[in-house]
Amino acid sequence: MATDSARGNSSSSSPELPLLESPVLTLPEYVEHTPAGEKKYLRSFEDPHCKTYNPVAEKSGFFNPGFAADEKVREEGSFVIPVPPPNVTGALHMGHALGNSLQDILIRWSRMQGKTTLWVPGCGHAGIATQTVVEKMLWRREKKTRHHLGREEFIGKVWEWKAEYHERINNTFEKMGSSLDWSREAFTMDGPRQAAVTEQFVSFHDEGIIYRANRLVNWCTALNTALSNLEVINRELTGRTLLEVPGYEKKIELGVIVHFKYPIEGSDETIEVDLRYKHLVGKTAIHPFLPGRKLPIVADKYYMDKEFGTGAVKLTPGHDSNDFHLGKQHDLEFISILTDNDLMNENTGPCKGLKRFDVRYKIQDDLKKLGLYVDKRDNHMRVPLCERSGDVIEPILKPQWWMRMRERTNEAVKVVKASEIRIRPESAEKSFYRWMENIQDWCISRQLWWGHRILSYFARFEGGAGNIPEDTLYFSGRTQEEAETADLERLFPTSLLETGWDILFFWVARMIMLGLKLTGQVPFREVYCHGLIRDSKGRKMSKSLGNVIDPFDLDELPRKAPVKRTAFPQGIPEYSAWPPIRLGEGDINFDIKVMHAYRRFANMIWQASKIRVCMEGSNWPSFWILHKLNEALAGREFMKVANTVYGYWYNQLCDVFIENSKARVSTLQTLYSALEAALLLIHPFMPFVTEELWQRLPRRPGDETESIILAKYPIYQKELDSPDAQAACELVLSSSKGIRSLMAEYALDQAA
Fold first, then answer.
1. Which Enzyme Commission number(s) are on file for it (predicted)?
2. 435 to each of 26, 439, 440, 490, how far by Cα in Å?
């Protein structure tokens, strides 16, 4: 493809373009065992074992913001993004790798434009998820629960887990080449973050934004905690379905409705739960198993459809959100029947101590014995499931802490509609509006040991009541002055938040609402949502399927799950290539075979860069190549740029221009420009190989740039456009393609 000499085949040279001796750049030999962080000498191209470049970027401060001499943002502007903090629940997956790669592309591109850039790293503590995985680990290794250890010892175990996986996450980011400013790393439970959370909780409580109320919450008995609505998945059932539920050996029957009769107090009538029952309104039914409990019969023209079933239903205001509101309207008694850990409580009489789903079968048998059982039918229903544990969620009446959301929601919608924040793609913005229209107050309290503790206590005073000055009840270790840092002044709001669309409501919407409240400004100017990574068959990657890919798997780590053996029967080769990415265009099916093609592409770039170039002369094919380069730079869209650069390198620069330039020294100066620009263009996508190759290019006079990281990104130069040259080249190429096709069809040798 490319030669090591500028001379090539002399017989192909034009008489009017004499061959010139190309200067040869002598490179020092690579020295093994370079101290970590030190700049290394490079092997020559002829050395087939040249290793991945280990940049001095972090030690040299290349990843720091790079302020102007007056410590302000540069004239070119700023570009700041935070890492959506991965949770310390375990290793990173390919979704993290995708998001990290896209963010790195944006940061490197902005840095090469001369902007003040900052990419802030960090990890999230993930209260429910981390506590759950540590509890599972503890049970697997020691057959103990957190209650065996006690709070203090268990929290110590969680911090040990956090330290291990936090380091592993950071190592993965570093191995991927992420150009993060590690001096600004944060953890959501480090000292500054804990102090800020405590301070703001008290402030919001004083304003009435945070309040405590006894309301129905989503209760997960497996995790023993309340959940927000966003942590609950509603599964549609069309009829009888058997589901696996944590804590039960056999699958549980759901998707059915049981019809039975209530005896009427003081009457021989029964009501099967409409004008048919009008004469019973105001009377009371008798609980079939608790005779002392009276059940009032009420009518409601809005809640009940008389055409559905018998036209009558039982109400459980203490365990159903719709019944809760109806119970308040009719002043019904709110009775809770379930303990926090899945057992029936003292309000259930003879069923006390039984598990909730076991009770269902017992009650059906007892109803049959009493002659009150009617039948059981399929019932289309939505079953709420815990996203983390898979447990069936139970609405339970509990005192919890809530945050008022309506005012915050209106402000967030307003700034998005005013384009102060742009949400891309358009489908994500529409989803944002739909969710914000139906938002409810946010349950922020959890019954966990790991996480931010709510510093609110019940106080008991002995002796007479006294007057305690209000300002002595609470002490804060953080002030507003502490929060107003130089970074906040210079680099806030941030430029962009790049994230998966699946946490648009979990994380992004709440960041907008709280950012506006806390700072009076939007937290970022743009939200970019990428699709989810799925396997080659379009299935969501999950640990249960065994198709989750750790980014380290691409370094041939031994993962032998059955699904992986099917998808990758030859193992997973190591890769340093980027796949074609469809940013904001739906989910992405990950196929290792596609990655293999791009691994070959990286090798092709390496081989193409071995051609020796000089810095004199130019001709029309050169301008044609630069015109193609300008077209690639004008798009700026990830998929378009990726495909354009790939086509430029593969189809034009290597297959055509380098082959055409081997014997024409007059074109080598423009080949140098095109090659240099091509490396700069692709650097944000492939930082390692481009750094290695860029270091080998001869330097222009006066150019003392230390790294491609700091080099200027190619800009669109209209004066270099040459439509005539492009048209001429297209004619030559199409003719050449036709000739090659004919030669192949008739099996003609090139010599012929």
1. 6.1.1.9
2. 62, 6, 10, 33
Handedness of CA 393, 398, 401, 407 (dihedral sign): positive
Task: Spell out, as residue ranges, where the chain has pLDDT lower than 50.
Answer: 1-53, 55, 274-275, 308-310, 468-478, 556-584, 614-622, 625, 629, 633-636
Residue recorded with tokens 């790079």: 66
Q: How big is the chain, counted in residues?
A: 752
Write the CB contacts of 731 (distance below 8 Å, at least 6 apart in sequence). Answer: none
pLDDT digits (tens, 9 = 90+) for 161-218: 999 999 999 988 888 888 999 999 999 999 889 988 998 999 999 999 999 988 888 9
Give the tens place of pLDDT for each residue, 45-98: 444 434 443 546 677 778 888 888 878 888 899 999 999 999 998 888 888 888
Q: Which domains are seen in the chain, by residue range?
A: 10-51+609-745 (1.10.730.10), 218-395 (3.90.740.10)
**Residue entry with tokens 């130089």:** 486
Nearest partner of 676 among 626, 623, 716, judged by Cα:
626
DSSP state of 46: T
Query: Closest by alpha carbon to 664, among 620, 626, 624?
Result: 620
Does residue 157 contact residue 138 with C-beta atoms inside 8 Å?
yes
d(CA 243, CA 214): 31
Burial class (CB in 10 A: 0-12, 13-18, 19+), 12: exposed
Q: Which DSSP category does 599 fall into?
A: H
Interatomic CA distance for residues 617 and 594, integer angstroms? 39
Instruction: Return the bridge partners of 258, or none.
Output: 376
In 373-518, where do the E strands start and end?
373-378, 381-386, 394-403, 422-424, 442-443, 494-500
* Closest residue by Cα to residue 65 from 482, 694, 520, 486: 486
pTM of the model: 0.73
